[in-house]
Design goal:
It is built from 8 helices and 4 strands. It is α/β, with parallel strands linked by helices and 177 residues long.
C-alpha cells in the first residue's frame, strides 16, 4: 500500500467512551483500512497504489450536534444516525485523484443517542450498528451513493462484504424478506 490514509477521530461526546464496550477510535481505524481496500478492489483506480495522502475526519458526536447540522445542511429538522460531508463531489471524485498529492476527503459525524436507539430497536449491538454506519459514511466519502436502485444495490453489497470481515450480519437481511 503506497497511499497513506490519515483518519482524524474526535470524541465529542463522552457517551462514546462511557457507554460502549469497544474502543470506537480503534474500530474506526480498522474499518477505514478494510473499506479503502474493498473500494480499491472494486474501483477502476486502485486508491491505495496512487502514492497519495487522504485525510478523513470522523466526529463521534451527539443528537444535538447532528440535528443542528442536519437542519443547516440538509433542511431536515431532526437528528439522524450519521452524516457524511464529502469534500469531493461524487461525479468528480475519480478525476480529483489526479489533481493533488494530498486529498481531504471530508467529514463523517455520528450521533450516539440515535445510533444507540436504532441498535436497540433492531436488536443488534451498538458495535454492529456503529460499524455499519461508519462503513456507510466511508463509502459516501469515497464517492458512492444510493440515489438510484442500482447505486443502492452496489453500495449495500459493499457494506455487507466489508461488515462480513468483522463478523457482522447483513444489516439489510430483514429488508430482503
Amino acid at each position: 500500500m503506497k497511499s497513506k490514509i490519515v483518519l482524524n477521530v474526535s470524541v465529542d461526546n463522552p457517551l462514546w467512551t462511557e457507554m460502549v464496550d469497544f474502543d470506537a477510535v480503534k474500530v474506526a481505524e480498522e474499518l477505514k483500512d478494510v473499506a479503502f481496500a474493498y473500494v480499491s478492489d472494486v474501483a477502476d483506480i486502485d486508491l491505495l497504489e496512487l502514492s497519495k495522502t487522504y485525510d478523513l475526519n470522523v466526529a463521534l458526536s451527539n443528537d444535538e450536534e447532528v440535528h443542528r447540522l442536519n437542519k443547516e445542511f440538509r433542511g431536515m429538522d431532526k437528528p439522524t444516525n450519521v452524516l457524511s460531508f464529502a469534500n469531493v463531489d461524487d461525479d468528480e471524485f475519480w478525476e480529483m485523484l489526479d489533481k493533488s498529492e494530498r486529498l481531504d476527503l471530508g467529514d463523517i459525524i455520528l450521533a450516539f443517542e440515535t445510533l444507540q436507539r436504532e441498535a436497540n430497536e433492531k436488536h443488534i449491538t451498538v458495535y454492529a450498528h456503529f460499524c455499519h454506519l461508519l462503513i456507510h459514511g466511508f463509502l459516501h466519502i469515497l464517492g458512492f451513493d444510493h440515489q438510484t436502485d442500482d447505486e443502492a444495490e452496489e453500495m449495500e453489497a459493499l457494506e455487507v462484504e466489508i461488515l462480513e470481515q468483522f463478523s457482522i450480519d447483513n444489516p439489510y437481511a430483514d429488508e430482503e424478506d
